[in-house]
TrEMBL record:
This is DNA-binding transcriptional regulator, PadR family. It comes from Amycolatopsis xylanica. Residues 199-378 form the GyrI-like small molecule binding domain. Residues 12-82 form the Transcription regulator PadR N-terminal domain. The lineage of its organism: Bacteria, Bacillati, Actinomycetota, Actinomycetes, Pseudonocardiales. It comes from the Bacteria.
Amino acid sequence: MSATLTDGELTVLGLLAEQPRHGYDLEKVIEQRGIRAWTALGFSSIYYVLDKLARRGLIEATGAPASAKARTTFRVTAAGSDLCAAATREALAALTPVRARVLIAMANSPGLPEADVTTGLAQRAEALREQLKDVRAARSGQEPLPSAASAIFDYSEAMLNADLTWTETTLGALAEEAAMDKYDIKKAHKPLYSPSAKDFTVVDVPELRYLAVDGAGDPNTSAAYVNAVEALYGVAYTLKFASKKTLGRDFVVGPLEGLWRADDPAVFAARRKQLWEWTMLISQPDWITDDMVQAAVDEVSRKKDNPALESVKLRTLAEGTCVQILHVGSYDDETPTLDRLHHQYLPENGLTFNGDHHEIYLSDPRRTASAKLKTILRQPVRPS
């Protein structure tokens, strides 16, 4: 039955059931009792609610005002009293679902800098402390209180204290995480992940470990490619959380990388993607083991059916001497750079191919304009 009354309507109806009141009286009582701490009821909306209740026959004016400027006093009708009682009985037993907006924010927070998240939560904690002060001041100003009013204040304080405890605990966990020595391959091997966009550079790439999935075909149209990337990220993040929880060792999930191969390297410059074979990769710290990977694969498989998951393996890659450059722009605009690498730089420096063409995707194509995509183009080489 309470579905026929909004929270605001039930609040106003209950206050009028106590005694007849006009709008200004209602505002004073709402303010004095701190009702806005648990019910959204603005001053302007009081008159809107009164009008709705009157039109439904739940309240009525006690008599015509003496003048146009006088305030109209309302009282509850018999129907209003019955509905208020029934709705109150139902509301006493009903559970209110928690839909705090901060939970949506926490779900989205991985997309923000850590400093923004901690600043926002710190501001939230301070606001909660101020709100607690206000509620306690309102309570103190009205004591001694009847048991029902005390229960209302108890609930308000309990909810605010619970929110404050959660906020402070979350802040503490974030601070602890920030203090943890978090492995980041882009920092641990900075020369490999920050090449020049102007000139080719030669780097020595040590043995590195990756989650890997093999496949073939045009990445723009192949379902196998989409499944492979989704599987890699699912396992990578599961490993990150498992490592932090069980080993106390955290790491930044590395960028997506890809090895690309074909019988004729010219198909890359020609962008004949249907002839490409590939191995998609995400780097892993050296403490991640095969057993941990399999456990992560099993966990992700229980949540989502993805045929690529069974192909996710831990693989060691030793590329040695490589030539690389940063490409800024669309993936399809790599052709001139690859042509210059293959037909100018390598021959002029007495070098030839010594492994798969390697690309490292530093940008998220879902959030970055194609003209601003940053991709490292790496080619293992040896003397020709």
